């Protein structure tokens, strides 16, 4: 679409001029009868060929979704006269009155359907397009060019793809967006270039230099990013609140100082305003790096450290000293986190709503008791693979966190129907429950849960020894519940 549109924008009306030249050549000389016959047969063949591959300038797109798929007409039909259409296209049968086909009898020039839309509607449609498609639309015609570069559409840059030269793309886009305000792009607030492996520190430096109002940055999977680039962004973008560097294995620290060993106290006047930080799969992150992050990012409310395998309980202790407002925390697959780490996490008290400790094999009922005792407003707990959790831990959790909505205790072989019964009798708001590979669970425990938790929406009992009757009982009592199972007799 981009190439075709570029040609049409550069040579508007070229098709109509060639057709008009054919018309003028046929009127200069008086043709003989034989020539008329030949011309008639040629016109008939030309008409057949034209109708088999209709020009987008002659047939309007029937609906707006046609534009969204990138097939909208790019030239105005006003340059093609009724006589020319009549000569190129044979008149349709009398019974054919399709409103989308232009007839020679219509004297007025008409526009394509999408061209009739007002500017604000076009801008609304453009707002759903990714950045690369929006740039292609800017090449269609002059009106689309002006609409596509409306400042309201450039609060976000979203690029994806492993082959795209992201550094160059960001340089070109920011240069265009800085035309009205030289060297500064004040409208851009979000940059999402996840999965762009060719992104380097140079691209992030461009963003840091030109976009002081940046609030959200997503560079997950861009493994060429280093601490230096992150330092440039957080130093030059004081309003940054959302940072996703998951999968950036070279990132080991986020700070306002080039020396990672220098810490800032919470009372320091200059702090990073990040509230959401995702460092999933940052394998090199260690306790000292987490200490620096906590000291510089004291306003954190959402922190995800999945598969940061070098972290220990000491890193969590540093975190709780500085970041006391955390609502969501994930330390899944951090195999060195134990009950002592959960004791530190419990210091968040009622502020903690989401906690994931999946596959933390050193966690037992002791750590669960700490969390349940102090974090009474916990809504989500993922403890899958914590084989040290038993019915006692589930019981203590159920009695203290009565507003629990989602619980995953899959692959906890020591949890049985006793723990499920206590859970069902206390957590009536439970909506999601995963018991995958819980060997001690039977149909009796499921029936107790179904009889008390009517709002249950998802139940995972894969690889559990439960009967078909128990699954049917759950289905009858929990109408909206989706049951994930491995019992071939139940359907």
UniProtKB/TrEMBL annotation:
<keyword id="KW-0498">Mitosis</keyword>
<feature type="domain" description="F-box">
    <location>
        <begin position="111"/>
        <end position="157"/>
    </location>
</feature>
<dbReference type="GO" id="GO:0005813">
    <property type="term" value="C:centrosome"/>
</dbReference>
<dbReference type="GO" id="GO:0051301">
    <property type="term" value="P:cell division"/>
</dbReference>
<dbReference type="GO" id="GO:0019005">
    <property type="term" value="C:SCF ubiquitin ligase complex"/>
</dbReference>
<keyword id="KW-0131">Cell cycle</keyword>
<dbReference type="InterPro" id="IPR036047">
    <property type="entry name" value="F-box-like_dom_sf"/>
</dbReference>
<keyword id="KW-0132">Cell division</keyword>
<comment type="pathway">
    <text>Protein modification; protein ubiquitination.</text>
</comment>
<protein>
    <recommendedName>
        <fullName>F-box/LRR-repeat protein 7</fullName>
    </recommendedName>
</protein>
<feature type="compositionally biased region" description="Low complexity">
    <location>
        <begin position="10"/>
        <end position="26"/>
    </location>
</feature>
<keyword id="KW-0963">Cytoplasm</keyword>
<dbReference type="GO" id="GO:0000209">
    <property type="term" value="P:protein polyubiquitination"/>
</dbReference>
<feature type="compositionally biased region" description="Polar residues">
    <location>
        <begin position="27"/>
        <end position="55"/>
    </location>
</feature>
<dbReference type="InterPro" id="IPR006553">
    <property type="entry name" value="Leu-rich_rpt_Cys-con_subtyp"/>
</dbReference>
<dbReference type="Pfam" id="PF12937">
    <property type="entry name" value="F-box-like"/>
</dbReference>
<keyword id="KW-0433">Leucine-rich repeat</keyword>
<keyword id="KW-0833">Ubl conjugation pathway</keyword>
<feature type="region of interest" description="Disordered">
    <location>
        <begin position="1"/>
        <end position="55"/>
    </location>
</feature>
<comment type="similarity">
    <text>Belongs to the FBXL7 family.</text>
</comment>
<dbReference type="GO" id="GO:0031146">
    <property type="term" value="P:SCF-dependent proteasomal ubiquitin-dependent protein catabolic process"/>
</dbReference>
<keyword id="KW-0677">Repeat</keyword>
<keyword id="KW-0206">Cytoskeleton</keyword>
<comment type="function">
    <text>Substrate recognition component of a SCF (SKP1-CUL1-F-box protein) E3 ubiquitin-protein ligase complex. During mitosis, it mediates the ubiquitination and subsequent proteasomal degradation of AURKA, causing mitotic arrest. It also regulates mitochondrial function by mediating the ubiquitination and proteasomal degradation of the apoptosis inhibitor BIRC5.</text>
</comment>
<dbReference type="Pfam" id="PF25372">
    <property type="entry name" value="DUF7885"/>
</dbReference>
<dbReference type="InterPro" id="IPR032675">
    <property type="entry name" value="LRR_dom_sf"/>
</dbReference>
<comment type="subunit">
    <text>Part of the SCF (SKP1-CUL1-F-box) E3 ubiquitin-protein ligase complex SCF(FBXL7) composed of CUL1, SKP1, RBX1 and FBXL7. Interacts with AURKA; interaction takes place during mitosis but not in interphase. Interacts with BIRC5; this interaction allows BIRC5 to be polyubiquitinated by the SCF(FBXL7) E3 ubiquitin-protein ligase complex.</text>
</comment>
<dbReference type="InterPro" id="IPR057207">
    <property type="entry name" value="FBXL15_LRR"/>
</dbReference>
<dbReference type="InterPro" id="IPR001810">
    <property type="entry name" value="F-box_dom"/>
</dbReference>
